[in-house]
Design a protein that fits this description.
CATH architecture of one domain: 3-Layer(aba) Sandwich
CATH topology of one domain: Aspartate Aminotransferase, domain 2
Number of helices: 14
Strand order of the largest sheet: 4-12-11-10-7-5-6
Bound molecules: pyridoxal-5'-phosphate
Helix content: 25-40%
Largest sheet: 7 strands, mixed
Shape: globular
């Protein structure tokens, strides 16, 4: 079937949950995707910060194939599994935290974290159930994670939300302090906000938040689902800020495309959830945790992260050049290989044109173009992407559209 017919089939059989780009991908190699008509695209989205090693990675395929060849993908958490044990051990070693819970997605990781902090609060003091998260944060779509998400437009059709959540503006310590007291059990923070428009939490701010958490016995939960696992140039965004968190949630890149999420805790709260408190049928199954092992092993290679840092510096240089050339770019945001170009108007026309020219980028909020290339991106790939972006910005000037 051709692309057009497939898309009309999709519209017939799927709930209209997503507004999708008119393309059906069938193959990929390195940082390129290929659609069903054979057109190639340079991918600066990576399945939304998921495919950090790009496509058709032979070693990754071998890893999955070995598990498949043995014939057992899943046994449930009624029994132990070697891959999960190995993955948990690696996560603990890399984060220098204490214990791990595996689930299947980001929203589930945050859901588990919300239950964990509420129980922690209950163990400390009856009524210690308040949770503060940040304005414009994104923590997921289930009701609990959505309640933590500080964006009314995501919540409005599904009220009432879970009780006792408050939202403080990012990088504003004074406002945060006003919302916190001894009945607060946790503060949830994305170290770099992704969906909210690529906004970094400052080091100084986070260090003060850490001190505040210590003062009131509050758990600091870092949602590293999008910004974690190498994206910022460090393994975890909080490491860059020289703070420690009590709970970290991970997903997206952790399985390089195989669905997996994780909650990692420090020793303050790693025994809070007891048998019967929480669980997941699929959580941490053979296939998912073998994928995670591959990801964590490769991220642990020092050359790998050195290269990410090197390429990040180059990307940053190219961004500055592009902004200097195009006054419609108002602001550059983000860090590492998680960056945003902020405009005054909706960026959809630019993204659509880039797609036509064979470059995949995605928005973060209506006015920000977000770049999340696979971490294996090279300077040459970046050059190619920026030639396309430059051409597209010459063609689509959001500023001059006003008068038309
Ligand atoms: C994507 C994302 C989530 C939700 O993850 P899903 O796997 O889509 O459920 C939560 N938090 C952040 C920061 C994210 O970027």
């Amino acid at each position: 079937m051709d692309q057009k017919s497939l898309i009309s089939e999709a519209n017939k059989y799927f709930m209209p949950t997503y507004s999708q780009f008119p393309v059906v991908f069938t193959k990929g190699d390195g940082i390129y995707l290929e659609d069903i008509e054979g057109k190639k695209y340079l991918d600066f989205v990576a399945g939304i910060s998921v495919n950090i090693f790009g496509y058709n990675d032979q070693n990754f395929k071998n890893t999955l194939n070995e598990v498949i060849a043995k014939g057992v993908l899943h046994t449930s958490n009624l029994y132990y599994n070697q891959y999960a044990i190995e993955a948990a051990k690696k996560l603990v070693e890399l984060s220098k935290m204490d214990k791990v819970f595996f689930c299947n997605s980001g929203t589930e990781a945050n859901e588990a974290a919300i239950k964990l902090v509420r129980k922690y609060g209950r163990l400390k003091k009856e009524g210690k159930t308040k949770i503060v998260s940040l304005v414009n944060s994104f923590h997921g779509r289930t009701i609990g994670a959505l309640s933590a998400t500080g964006q009314p437009n995501y919540q409005k059709n599904f009220a009432p939300m879970v009780d006792q959540f408050k939202y403080a503006p990012i990088n504003n310590y004074e406002e945060l302090v006003k919302m916190v007291d001894e009945d607060t059990c946790a503060i949830f923070i994305e170290v770099v906000q992704g969906e909210g428009g690529i906004v970094s939490a400052d080091k100084e701010y986070l260090q003060k938040v850490r001190t505040l958490c210590d003062k009131y016995d509050i758990l600091l939960v870092c949602d590293e689902i999008q910004c974690g696992l190498g994206r910022t140039g460090k393994l975890f965004g909080w490491q860059k800020r020289e703070i420690e968190c009590d709970v970290m949630t991970l997903a997206k890149a952790l399985g390089n495309g195989i669905p997996i999420g994780a909650v990692v805790t420090n020793n303050k709260c790693s025994e809070v959830l007891q048998p019967g408190d929480h669980g997941s049928t699929f959580g941490g199954n053979f296939l998912a945790t073998s994928a995670a092992n591959y990801v964590l092993n490769r991220l642990s290679e020092p050359q790998f992260m050195e290269n990410v840092e090197d390429v990040s510096t180059y990307l940053n240089k190219k961004l500055i050049e592009l902004k200097d050339k195009h006054s419609q770019i108002k602001e550059l945001r983000g860090e590492g290989l998680m960056v945003g170009l902020a405009f005054e108007d909706k960026v959809k026309p630019i993204i659509d044109e880039a797609l036509k020219d064979g470059l995949l980028v995605v928005s973060a909020g209506a006015n920000v173009i977000r770049l999340l290339p696979p971490l294996i991106v090279t300077k040459k790939d970046i050059d190619k992407a920026f030639i396309i972006l430059d051409e597209v910005l010459n063609r689509v000037n959001l500023l001059s559209n006003d008068g038309q």
